[in-house]
Amino acid sequence: MKYQAEYDYLEKVLGKMRLRVMLLEGEREPGRYPDLGLRKFLGVGDGYPKMLRAPRSWAEGNTIYRITDEFDCNYVFLLLPETGDGMLVGPYVTVEKTREQLMEEAERYGLPASRLHDLEACYAAIPLLRDDSAFFAMMNVFGETIWGGSHTFTMLEVRDDPPAGRFWQEEEAGRDPAEVMLRMKSMEDRYAYENEWMQLVTLGQSQRAERMLGNFSKLSLELRTSDSIRNMKNYCIVCNTLLRKAAERGGVHPLHLDATSSDMARRVEQITDPEAGGELMRTMVRTYCRLVRKSALRRYSAPVRQTIACMESDLTADLSLSALAELLNVNASYLSDLFHRETGKTITEYVTELRMNQAANLLTATNLQIQTVAQHCGISDVNYFSKLFKKQYLVTPRQYRSEHNPYR
Questions:
Q1: What is the homologous superfamily of the domain 302-404 according to CATH?
Q2: Are the C-beta atoms of 209 and 197 separated by less than 8 Å?
Q3: Is 90 helix (H, G, I), strand (E, B) or coil?
Q4: Is the previous residue joined to 81 through a cis bond, with omega within 30 degrees of 0?
Q5: Which of 154, 274, 313, 321 is the most exposed place for a label (fewest CB within 10 A)?
Q6: What are phi and psi of 225, to 5 degrees?
Q7: Distance, CA of 5 to CA of 349 (rounded, Å)
Q8: pLDDT-derived band of residue 366, with 50, 70 and 90 as boundaries?
Q9: Whole-angstrom Cα distance, residue 365 to residue 209?
Q10: pLDDT tops 90 at residue 318
Q11: Mean pLDDT, range 23-43, rounded to an integer
Q12: Alpha-carbon distance 156 to 67, whole Å?
């Protein structure tokens, strides 16, 4: 397939966002469950709207379509040039449905109250993008690449009308094996995402961990009550537990973990609205990451702690061994040996790692040019900076930005 490299790269990046990409070759229609089995469960499995059932029959070339269906699930569809093959991305949602909204959805299709939990699970399996501007900026770049410029294609938003469908019937309640496999795969992806998030906390990388937090869905956890505030509190309790375990792996002493966890538990019970709960979870991430970073320094001697403090205070400064030794008024050879013995790294290696971590944060959080990022990290030669960055992250700074923050 032409543009195979671009397609493979896009599929990899979207996979990081838990978005599924389906390639529709020739006249083949989408798989049986392009909506992850939601319609099948609701008993409208034969009622896929034309836009999802046969997108090639209505779509035009040089156009990226954003399709929103009657369940507020979003998809993107386009026809690849020359081959005419279709590409379908999705589904995903941008807003979480409340328990009350799901009750109304269940009533609409005659779903028994006893199956509400299953409906919640169906929506929990659908990826949540609270802000899909990054995704669409990435699709825009993809369009420019395959069609040769921003002026050569358009982006359209369309909405499907609800299918006639049929009401849910008890005899249709059985699970189709394909549906079960889709749900299992979605759950595996969600847990992999959760583990990646916990690993960032273990490393003390609060900015990246906080950004990933925004893609979690409260529906991913069991909603045990009809009280939205109580559900939010339960969600915060689970997050507090996960963060505590991640920080423990990061070397934080149980004494500090217990104090922080207890404080967060008290603050959870003071939540009065969902927005306050969301802010508390962001505070949790920052607090536990800070504990991890502080814990890493406690095992070092005073000279090494002071050296690291000097490094972190200004990465643009002269952080050579001689400059640091002079600043701390110690012998350079003594400082070099002590630092390597306690950290397992030379001063140069440690400084480089700090600078590259700072570079990664700036590449994903700002629009700064690569050369400016290098300067903020204390490296004036952008080529040397790129070489150091690729050695640590195995990709160039530009590739890293595209993969971790596609809309930049």
A1: Homeodomain-like (1.10.10.60)
A2: yes
A3: strand
A4: no
A5: 313
A6: -135, 170
A7: 34
A8: confident
A9: 12
A10: yes
A11: 68
A12: 9
Provide mean pLDDT across the span 269-291: 87
Among the listed residues 46, 24, 36, the one whose alpha carbon sits nearest the alpha carbon of residue 92: 36
Contact by Cβ (8 Å): 59, 76: no
- Model confidence over 330-347: pLDDT tens digits? 999 999 999 999 989 999
Whole-number Å distance between alpha carbons of 352 and 393: 12
Closest CA to 136 of 217, 60, 74: 74
Instruction: List b or e across 287-325, with b for residues whose CB sees 16 or more CB atoms inside 10 angstroms.
Output: ebbebbeebbeeebeebbebbbeebeeebeeebebeebb
Note whether 242 and 198 are within 8 A (CB): yes
The Cα–Cα gap between 348 and 308 comes to: 12
Nearest alpha-carbon partner for 112 in 177, 38, 43: 43
Residue matched to tokens 């409340």: 98
pLDDT at 173: 46
Q: Residue 159 belongs to what H/E stretch?
A: strand 154-159
CA dihedral 67, 68, 74, 77 (to 10 degrees): -10
Q: pLDDT (tens digit, 9 = 90+) per residue, 50-87? A: 666 666 677 888 999 998 888 888 999 898 887 777 88
Strand ranges, E, within 49-144: 63-68, 74-79, 86-92
Whether 171 has a pLDDT exceeding 50, the answer reads: no
- Where do we find the tokens 């032409």? 2
Distance CA 395, CA 381 (A): 18
pLDDT tens digits along 197-234:
888 898 888 877 887 776 665 545 554 455 667 778 88
